[in-house]
Design a protein that fits this description.
With about 110 residues, this protein is of the alpha+beta class. It has one domain: Alpha-Beta Plaits, CATH 3.30.70. A 4-stranded antiparallel beta sheet has the order 2-3-1-4. Helix 1 runs antiparallel to helix 3. The N and C termini lie close together (about 10 Å).
């Protein structure tokens, strides 16, 4: 089986107006991911109960090549170009699957 590749991304949004617009951008991006990315095994967006202007993304790819294919998709390029106007900060943590239960194992 593949080793898997993942990311956790913490987005800090500028404010309530930014949050709604960012969430709409994410919704459109997810439609493209769902339709065109079989190597993207999970792409989950979380809100944080006590931090309304924070979004946490959990992304899991079959392998590094699937992540690189994701980065080249038109919907992803659009998201990357548009997101900056809504953000006050971004923190990215790359992950490598070590152990667990799911579609990708170590």
């Amino acid at each position: 089986m593949s080793s898997g590749f993942g990311l956790i991304v913490r987005f800090e949004l500028r404010g309530d107006d930014s949050a709604a617009a960012f969430d709409e951008l994410v919704s459109r991006t997810l439609a493209g991911i769902t339709a065109h990315e079989p190597g993207t095994l999970a792409y989950v967006v979380h809100t944080v109960p006590d931090e309304p202007n924070v979004r946490i993304f959990y992304e899991l790819y079959a392998d590094r090549a699937a992540f690189e294919a994701h980065e080249q998709q038109p919907h992803t390029k659009h998201f990357l170009a548009e997101r900056e106007q809504y953000l006050s900060g971004v923190q990215v943590t790359a992950l490598r699957v070590q152990a667990g239960k799911g579609p990708v194992s170590a």
